[in-house]
Amino acid sequence: MAEQVISPDLNFINDVIRSGGESLKKCFQCATCSVVCNVTPADKPFPRKEMIQAQWGLKDKLFSNPDIWLCHQCSDCTAYCPRGAKPGEVLGAIRKLSIQHYALLGFLAKAVGSPRFLLFLFALPAAIFLIITASIGSLWNVPRGANGAIVLSKLVPVIFIDSVFIPTALFASIMFAFGILKYWKDMAKNAAQTSGSNIISAIIATVTAILLHNGLKKCDLTKTRRKSHLLVFYGFGGLFIATNLSLFYIYGLKWESPYPQTDPLKFFGNGGAIALIVGITLMILNRLRNKEKAGIGSYFDWLFISVIAVIGVSGMLAQLLRLAGIAVLAYPIYFIHLVFVFFLFAYAPFSKMAHMFYRATAMVFAKYSGRGESA
Q1: Residue 246 and residue 162: Cα distance in Å, rounded?
Q2: pTM for the complete prediction?
Q3: How far is the C-alpha of 110 from the C-alpha of 330, rounded, in Å?
Q4: Average pLDDT value for the chain
Q5: Contact residues for 318 (Cβ-Cβ < 8 A; gap 6+)
Q6: pLDDT tens digits, residue range 35-88?
Q7: Which of 141, 250, 294, 355 is the most buried (most CB within 10 A)?
């Protein structure tokens, strides 16, 4: 049998502990976690081997392993662990560190994962929109529409919003592309299996699984997570459609906002916002209800949840206050909404939102390489 040289990274072990995996060293390798997991493949199941690798500081093995993303953090393993090692929380911490590892701007990924830099991260978009509103004079005296109506786009005109968010979207796309390509190369280099489906079939199967959130169907402890995740997922979908409709109205049809409540744009926008708010509320309640068995989650988790919650509530509230004619509240809340939307998308490649892309990549690779079928 060939010898294997193990090079533990002690700093990585400490990083896992600091990132939410403080229970890592409680694991004594009984394998209960892999036995109770309904998601893990039968061949080399997780998360037992990931717990060993994390305890030994085998960072490279963990980061190039699709299994850390095939885990959906159902927390069945955490609930049944006789030692309270919380494998679900540990793998969550490893995923956070994996995002940092593959980020082109590692310092920014570390900043997003640390509460020390939270004010700075919010200060950037706040400063951008303050400079815009001050330069055009809407900071102190917001123009009104016809008959004195509140028009939120008068605070920050569409041309300025697009000049901020289009480069932001481009930046996020480049960051994602760099990280995903690097991750795929590492998985391919270390893959043990290569006899899977073709890449197109793997992509189609993955997209179908994501659209239906099939993985979460197998969770026992946190069954309601599927419903909340679906609501948030399709809430974003509705808001994405509404955003693109607004671009078509503004640049294609030359229609200025605000639009009537009966317009299809409002249907997708309001429907998406309601789904987002309900979904994130259920997500929060689920975490609080199962905190003793599943763990409460890390700062990294709660930052993402909180940002989504504020985006949904502030967007809906700004609209309701506009309709009610309460300008003194409508405009400031709309300003807050813009700041949080910028935060979500500018830092997406470095936040928990990156899970969507890294997990999808791991799922595609698992199917492509012949991995990923549960027992």
Answers
A1: 12
A2: 0.92
A3: 34
A4: 91
A5: 152, 330, 333, 334, 337
A6: 999 888 888 899 999 999 999 999 999 999 999 999 988 889 998 999 999 999
A7: 294
CA proximity to 16, closest of 62, 47, 48: 62
Q: Residue 352 — very low, low, confident or very high, per pLDDT cuts 50/70/90? A: very high
Q: Please tell me the distance from the alpha carbon of residue 46 to that of residue 51, in angstroms, as a whole number.
A: 9
Rounded Cα gap, residues 165 and 344, in angstroms: 11
Q: How far is 86 from 72, CA to CA, in rounded Å? A: 14
What single letter denotes the amino acid at residue 85? Answer: A
- Residue 212: name the closest of 226, 228, 224, 202 by CA: 226
Measured CA to CA, the distance from residue 33 to residue 63 in angstroms comes to: 20
CA neighbor of 153 nearest in space, from 333, 357, 331: 331
Q: Is a pLDDT exceeding 90 seen at residue 221?
A: no
The Cα–Cα gap between 93 and 108 comes to: 17
Q: What number of other Cβ atoms are within 10 A of residue 30's Cβ?
A: 13
What number of other Cβ atoms are within 10 A of residue 148's Cβ?
A: 8
The answer for residues whose C-beta is within 8 angstroms of residue 36's C-beta and 6 or more apart is 76, 77, 80
Answer whether 82's CB lies under 8 Å from 95's CB: no
Query: What are the backbone dihedrals phi and psi of residue 41, each rounded to the nearest 5 degrees, phi first?
Result: -65, 155
Q: Which has the closest alpha carbon to 158: 308, 355, 338, 291?
A: 338
Is residue 267 packed enough to be buried (19+ CB in 10 Å), middle (13-18) or exposed (0-12)? middle
Taking only the tens place, the pLDDT of each residue in 128-168 is: 999 999 999 998 888 887 777 899 999 999 999 999 999 99
Which residues are bridge partners to 41 per DSSP?
374
Residue 59 to residues 39, 74, 98, 375, Cα–Cα distance (Å): 23, 23, 9, 27
